[in-house]
Amino acid sequence: MGAVHISIMSGKLDGFKSISTNTLTNQFCIKMNRANEEIICSHCYSHTMLKGFRKNAAPPLQRNSDLLSSRPLTVDELPFMKENYVRFNAHGELINAQHLENLVAITLHNPHCNFALWSKRKDIIKKFFSINEKPNNLLLIYSNPKIGTIIKEPPIYFDRTFNNVLEDEYVDRQNCTGQKCKHCLLCYTHNKVNTIVEKVKRY
Length: 203
Known about the structure:
This protein is 24% helix and 16% strand. It has a seven-stranded mixed β-sheet with strand order 1-2-3-4-5-6-7. β3, α4 and β4 form a beta-alpha-beta unit.
């Protein structure tokens, strides 16, 4: 299947690298993308991009989907990251427990780097970390699926929540609007902020 594919990000994530998977073949993502408009996944940027102007990104992301979800990576397959901060799941979602196990292995292989993982899969996270230790350099961001609601308390094992609201909602609470991630790093560092609020981007 080849090595783990590392994406070079742009836009809001300019300056970051990411280890992601293919949204278009993830059954959880497909189901959520077909949900009603109150669910953020129905406005998914990844589905739109990978079906359109970023079609060429789908094959390497699919190789990651196949590799990361099928078996444990060997030590030689674990990528070394030179960066201080890396994002998991800039595209895609956790596929299964094996996928999460491999992301944890990558995290442990790079103790100098902080990894942030966005996920809606509370079920996979809870089951895995109930019997496995969570690395200190892995930050778990619970991605609230419902637009216009703010979840303040992160689910078990998550470090913070990420919430999407309409432009005129909770304006005083919006703390992820208009800046690049590399200039903020709230999601990528240990700090006292456990609730991230961003205005909805429609795709």
